[in-house]
Amino acid sequence: MDAYAVSKHVGYPPRKVRQLADMVRGKKVDNALTLLRFTRRAASEAVSKTIQSAMHNLVNKHGASVAAEEMFVKSIIIEEGATMYRIRPRAQGRAYRIRKRSSHITIVLQERGQA
């Protein structure tokens, strides 16, 4: 049985979040959370919160019989969210754009026996 969680408008660029997604894709949930806890990336907190949300969704959906050791990250998708544009003043009256990108994180968890 699958369960998923979605975090939208996460304030980190998709390119940086995808690096974390590649690390935890296909791993057990407890191993993925441990790996993210000791990763020195700011976006690891957002990814781990989304994994925990999906884990709780799977427990709610299937019942209390599912343990964290039996779950694994089936898929993790990082999509580009809205981009905020800011203006940076430059010399001679010019203005450069600063793009502040955001991400949408979708995580699907599955039980180990259900593959």
Question: What features would you describe in this structure?
Answer:
The protein has 115 residues and is of the alpha+beta class. The protein has one domain: Ribosomal Protein L22, Chain A. 34% of the residues lie in helices and 39% in strands. It contains 3 helices and 3 strands, in the order βαααββ. Strands 1-3-2 form a 3-stranded antiparallel beta sheet. Strand 2 and strand 3 form a beta hairpin. It is elongated. The mean pLDDT is 92.
Kindly report the spatial arrangement of strands forming the biggest sheet. 1-3-2
Number of domains: 1
- Compute the average pLDDT: 92
Distance between the termini: 9 Å
Order of SSEs, N→C? Answer: EHHHEE
Helix percent band: 25-40%
Tally of individual helices? 3
How big a fraction of the residues is strand? 35-45%
CATH architectural designation: Alpha-Beta Complex
Uncertain spans, ≥5 residues at pLDDT below 50? none
CATH class category name: Alpha Beta
Q: How many β strands by DSSP?
A: 3
CATH topology: Ribosomal Protein L22, Chain A
Radius of gyration using CA atoms only? 17 Å
Structural class, by secondary structure, is alpha+beta
Could you give me the name of the CATH homologous superfamily? Ribosomal protein L22/L17
